[in-house]
Every structure is written in C-alpha cells, then in structure tokens.
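Here is an idea for our session: we take a single protein and study its fold together. To get us started, please write out a protein record for me. Start from the sequence, derive the backbone structure tokens from it, and show both lines together. Go ahead whenever you are ready, and we will take it from there:
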Amino acid sequence: MEEEKNETEYAASQLIKDNLRIIISVIIVIAIAGGIYSYSKRTQPPVGSEEEAVTQQAPGQEESVEVGEEDMAAVPEQAQDTTITSQAEETTAVQPESKETEGSFIETAGQGDGVTHLARRALANYLEKNPDSSLTPEHKIYIEDYLRKHVGFSGRVYVGTSAEFSKDLVRQAIEQSKKLNDNQLNNLHKYAVMVPSLS
C-alpha cells in the first residue's frame, strides 16, 4: 500500500513537471478570460437593478434617475425638462433625424455620426426632392466635403447635435462639383469606393 501511494505521488509530481508549461499557459489563459469577462460586465449598465427599482416603487410616486451633465448634453433642450426614466430609453430616444424647412435641411446626429454624415444625409434629402442623374459617387463625395467645410459648424459632434444645411448651399455644392475635371474626379474615386451607399 505504501509503495502504491508513493508511486502515485511520484507519477503525479512527474506529470506536473513534464507539463508545467502547458499548465501555466492554461492558468494564464483562464486569468485573461476572467479579466475580460469581468471588465465587460463592469462596463454594461445594470439593467436588472433599474427594472427592480421601477417595480418596487409605489403607484403614486414619480420616478427619477440621476443624470450627469454628460448625459444631459446628449438630450435635446426641450427634453431636459422631462424626467428620464432610464439610460436605455435615453439612448434610443435620440435617433438621427432630418427636418426640412423652407430653405434648409436640419440634420441631427446619431451614434457615430460626424459632420460628413450629416452632410451626406442633407445631400440625400435634397436629391430625393430634386433628382440629378448626372451626379456620380465622386461628385457626391466632393459635395459632402464642400458642405462640411461651408456649413459653419465647428467642434465635436455629439449624439443630438444638429447642423443646418441651406438648400442654396447644397445647390452651390452641386454646381461646383460639376466643374471638376477628370483628374479631380479620378482622385475622388478612391474615396467614393469606400462609401457604397453613394452609388
């Protein structure tokens, strides 16, 4: 009995010595995976706790959630007077939108939008109402850039940021794009292929 126990212990210690690199590698991989999992859970908002708080509330009480200054910057000014019930509702409430006035298009930024995206939407809205089949994707790239530079907007674009593109400015950009020579259009081609929605 004593020999079998010693033999088993020797075999186990020999197995560990022979496979030490593999064992350490597995432990490192598990530690990294655990760290990634922990980090991803920390960055997600606790949805369940907000739902529980709502269900435990008395029927006659008003609900309110504290919202920081960063969150309030993303909400349009008229919506700041209302009570925000959850962060999830706030992010879905501000969608990219377009409004047309008599002389302009007002584009509101969504998640990941920049001034070029807003200019692209303004151009699409203009061309929807005033189709021009002579415009190629290269012309549209030029027009977007022209609008971006001439709209008079500076600074960062946040969710809910609006930019106004006058219809005259869009018309002027289209006219300027039609004056481009073949070399300029060929140069713009490399940018046009990166935006498949323009074709």
